[in-house]
Amino acid sequence: MEDIALLCRRYTMLSVMQISLLMRMSVVFPFVADLAHGELKVYVRARQQDSFLLIAQERPHTIYMPGKPEGVGRIVRCIEEPMVEDTFRTGRPGRGKREWNYGSMIDMYTFGIHDGDKVIGVLNFEVDADKLSIDGYLHLLEAAVMVLQYARRSLDPEQFHPITARDGIILTDAHSRIVFADAAAQRIYRVLGVGSLRGCHLFDRQLTQHVMRETVERDRPWQKEITAGGLILIRREIVIQEGGATKMRIVILSDVTDTRAKDKEIRIKSAVIQEIHHRVKNNLQTIASLLRLQARRSKSEDVKAALQESVNRILSISVVHEYLSQQGSEDIDVQEVMEHIFELAARNMTDRHFTIHTEFKGPRLILPSKCASSVALVLNELVLNAMEHAFTGRTEGLIGLAVEEAPDHWQLDFYDDGIGLPDDFAKRPRKSLGLSIVRTLVEGDLGGTFVLENDEKGRGHGTHARLYLPKAQPNPTDE
């Protein structure tokens, strides 16, 4: 709502204090439009003679309003809005009708915003009376105006978040006696076995006897979640006070029974999926253990090396399933998975006299689980390749991962500070199983591009394996 202050400073003669008052009130403008079931327009006097400035316009969420908004910041001549001009001059509320679209009429209600004896703004409610068949509508309008007056002080914006068309609205007088309940509120209480609400005390036992449980949020004492008669309700209560005395209570009831049921279903499915990931991880680790056992029993060094590579590939996939079994979502953090793969490789592939250093650069990269296994396998193969070829004759080395974001893709730069690629690497036949796996997964499963090249500084400064992965990942079922 900073636009209000900007517009007022640029086009009006309002003081800093008056603009500050309008800014405080603007917090409740959307809520008030919902409560009044009408479009709210707020006018102030413009510097331009005989003109108003439209500084705010809010359309309700509680009822459909045809037509397009006129546009905040528009200069309106006084002659175009005679009711608004009359309220500016007299300070008195106004009520009338005006032609809307194609001969249809709307009801108009105007109220002044006062700074002492001076009217600094006018609230204009436009209500489609033909569509709005609410018994006791003037109670809603009165409540809307009282909220606006109450908002002259600083309020918690969260308390005044929008009302939806499905929410029930209950209004009470100063003694907490119900003077208004809309159709949605009455429908909710009929399910709870309560007939007419009007005239009942808000805290009568007949209104609360079906409540089985109440939960109050610590940072929202004005809001409760209530379980009653098979329903789950969010009850938001706004107490309008003046001079320390209660003038009105506004209760908003939201039926969230279906939402909570869906939330529970999602939690159950999430728990099942996490358990599946956990079991897959355990099965993969069992297979890896069997392969290790076979490797120890083999007398062929080539067989041992091949089995160890297979173990690392299986464990890299296991890392993904372990990560997903511990998370509440089906997304993976590539850096975290990479750290686990580094640890596996360092533990299984390095000589105890060799020290490997790792580093990560760039933003956190979160990818959906559908491509997690492919990414993990790719990174595993690159780590294994670096450990096997990059650090010949050395006692320490560095491998790292740098992530960069572009508008339509991610760039993953896996690098080392090893001896680099041979000069004739591009001309050699591609016999490396690891690099073949990388290229197939990146280009086939992930729909990306794979580039392997020496550091730009030249031979002896390491190798860069760059993966370019599109942000829109291909469907795994696509051919």
Straight-line distance between termini = 50 Å
In CATH terms, what is the architecture of the largest domain?
Answer: 2-Layer Sandwich
CATH topology of the largest domain: Beta-Lactamase
Q: What integer is the average pLDDT?
A: 85
Number of helices, where a helix is a run of at least 4 consecutive DSSP H or I residues: 12
Radius of gyration: 34 Å
Portion of residues in helices?
25-40%
Report on the biggest sheet. Answer: 6 strands, antiparallel
Assess the beta-strand content as a share of residues.
Answer: 25-35%
Shape field: elongated
Instruction: Indicate the structural class.
Output: alpha+beta
Question: What is the name of the CATH superfamily of the largest domain?
Answer: GAF domain
Low-confidence stretches: none
- Tell me the number of strands: 19
Q: Describe it for me?
A:
- The longest helix has 41 residues, at 257-297.
- The protein has helices at 2-11, 16-26, 29-36, 82-90, 137-150, 183-191, 205-208, 257-297, 301-325, 334-349, 372-389, 433-445, and strands spanning 39-45, 51-58, 75-77, 94-99, 105-115, 118-127, 168-172, 178-181, 211-217, 220-228, 231-242, 245-255, 331-333, 355-361, 366-368, 396-405, 409-416, 449-454, 463-470.
- It starts with a helix and ends in a 9-residue tail after the last strand.
- The protein has four domains: 1-134 and 142-152, 2-Layer Sandwich (Beta-Lactamase); 166-255, Beta-Lactamase (2-Layer Sandwich), CATH 3.30.450.20; 257-329; 352-479, Heat Shock Protein 90 (2-Layer Sandwich), CATH 3.30.565.
- The strands form four sheets. A six-stranded antiparallel sheet has the order 3-2-1-6-5-4, sandwiched between helices.
- Helices cover 37% and strands 29% of the residues.
- The chain has twelve helices and 19 strands.
- The chain has 479 residues and is of the alpha+beta class.
